[in-house]
Amino acid sequence: MPGPKSKLPAVLALIAALLGLLFASNSTLDYAKHLDRRLHDVHCSFIPGAPATSEAEACRVAMYSPYSALLKEQYWGGIPISLFALGAFAFFSAFAVYLLVYGARAPRRALLFFGAASLVPLVVSLIMFTISVTKLGTVCKTCAGIYISSTLLAVAGVLGILASSREAPAEPRATVSPLLPVIWLISLGAISLVPALVYAASAPDERPYITKCGDLKQPKMKNDEFVKIATTHPIQPTLLFEDPLCPTCKAFHERLVGENIIEKLDVSLVLFPLDSDCNWMLDTALHPGACIVSKAVLCGGDNARAVLEWAFEEQEYLTRAGKNGPDVLRAAIKQKWGDAMLKCVDDRKTDVRLNNHLHFASDNNIPVSTPQMYLGSRRVCDEDTDLGLRFTLGQLAPEVLK
Question: What confidence category does residue 1 fall into, taking pLDDT thresholds of 50, 70 and 90?
Fold first, then answer.
């Protein structure tokens, strides 16, 4: 327990607030960089100041999730919630300096206010941690850095309250007006909002760009062999080009499901496996085994969505199996879906049908990457399938967000 003259609460608070500032600024920087409609490395480390990396899957999941930002339909990418942490930690940094300057003479009201206010970031962190674990199934390291900083700040606040209960015998504490804690509270709220307000005011207008990524040249496929994905309230014709072993496709599908968008899409699926075994547009396989799994989706018939979602759920295993050869994949398909499915996968007619899907992609000059999304015949830009998804849908198909 700190003594009456101890500066431990203020020192610990300053360290915690500065760490929180660093992690929140890294998170915000990653978000802001993606506003140029390109992909970048992401900060994802427990180590403060560690460089950004492309190996940051958990942090990308958090960044692309519906919980990473507010007002996504009003602003492209929304207003990242890390901005509120940035403002709050800035306030606590300044307040920690204030407590350091006063030292043992720090007003009791200041210590009590600091102790109570320091619990707010901890409560918010606990809520976000729960969402990360229960909704996202992962915790990004940068987010964890903010959670740890919030915990240290709360510990400093509790120590400050304990210190306020002790009087320094030779150095009485300063006194402040009873209204000052109210002013501090208002300042905490205002400073927490300032970064978000500045960000919103400076965010670029993306509306001129969302309709400039092209259109389908030939909307009809030979024999009309699109795969229909069953949804509950299909109102917006949508064409998707996907590879069942593509991690980005999996994340995109989970985003559509998680934000309750997919149920309002009338989805026609084009299988576009990035596997040179069947895709002549590739010299080497990006996702070995994707041809076989794509044929399983084609054979799914009315259960095509279930087969696709099974492939996404078991993607890590199926990807490893694909690297070990077709027999392992066939065994996995047979075990899950039975002999009839495997017989269809090996049928020559299924090869022809998958080839028609690939010809359809080629005839429309589809970029050799997945996923690709078309609302009607209008292509949704690659960047708008992640951070800008809700904003873009709000502009081009607002009915699917209602």
Answer: low
Q: What are the structure tokens assigned to 359, written together?
A: 């010809």
70 three-class SS: strand
Distance CA 284, CA 203 (A): 40
CA–chain centroid gap for 301, Å, is: 32
Q: How many CA atoms lie within 13 Å of 282's alpha carbon, on the beta-carbon side?
A: 19
Distance of CA 387 to the CA centre of its chain: 8
- The CATH-assigned architecture of domain 222-401 is 3-Layer(aba) Sandwich (3.40)
Q: Above pLDDT 90, what percent of the chain?
A: 61
Three-state SS at 215: strand
pLDDT attached to residue 53: 77
For residue 67, CA distances in Å to 70, 103, 258, 359 come to: 8, 40, 10, 38
What is the DSSP track for 6-43? --HHHHHHHHHHHHHHHHHHHHHHHHHHGGGSS---B-
Query: What integer best gives the mean pLDDT of the chain?
Result: 89
CATH 3.40.50, applies to 8-202: no
Those residues with Cβ within 8 angstroms of residue 211's Cβ, 6 or more apart along the chain or in another chain: 378, 396
DSSP three-state, residue 228: strand
Q: CB-hemisphere CA count at 13 Å for 115?
A: 16
What are the structural domain ranges in the chain? 8-202, 222-401
Q: Contact, 36 vs 383, CB < 8 A? A: no
